[in-house]
Amino acid sequence: MISRLALILVLLGSPAYAGGDPVKELGLQALHEHAPDIVIEDFQGNTTKISDHLGHPIVLHFWATWCTGCVQELPQLAALAQVFGKDSITFFAISIDERGKKMEIERFVGDLQPRLATWIPQSPAQAERYWAWGVPMTYFINAKGEIVARGMGAKNWSKIPSTEWSTFFQSLK
Length: 173
What we know:
This protein has one domain: Glutaredoxin (3-Layer(aba) Sandwich), CATH 3.40.30.10. The chain contains 6 helices and 8 strands. The protein has helices at 4-11, 22-25, 68-84, 102-110, 124-128, 162-171, and strands spanning 29-34, 39-41, 47-49, 58-63, 90-95, 118-121, 137-141, 146-152. Strands 1-8-7-4-5-6-2-3 form an 8-stranded mixed sheet.
């Protein structure tokens, strides 16, 4: 298990970070549109809706086991979730793999350290409501239910120092 200190060191990022806004630094697309409500399911069959978690920031990350970029960035997102998830920021890692591959998805996620809670859309049409035609795809949703930014393609999430993430997540509240 990665210690909190190790996570913070990972999140401090590379010296190439210029500082400022994570949206600009990571080349995220700034958006100001309503977040579609979708139903997602965990591996025990429990369901939730995105709208059930409004009132605080949400990070939706669509990924797949066959996606090379996803494999590289999931540990970074898991580290972010471990550090900031306790601050009322909900992280949803949503696999778009076929529903019949639940065991493969579970095994893949089980190898991540730290662990990242993983969900699947209740139906393929649910993921399509987020234009998830390609993965990885990450959405940052504010407490009011508005998509503030979208990241298309693999990103180096650990490039941004934790202080900048903290400021960014605070702006979503």
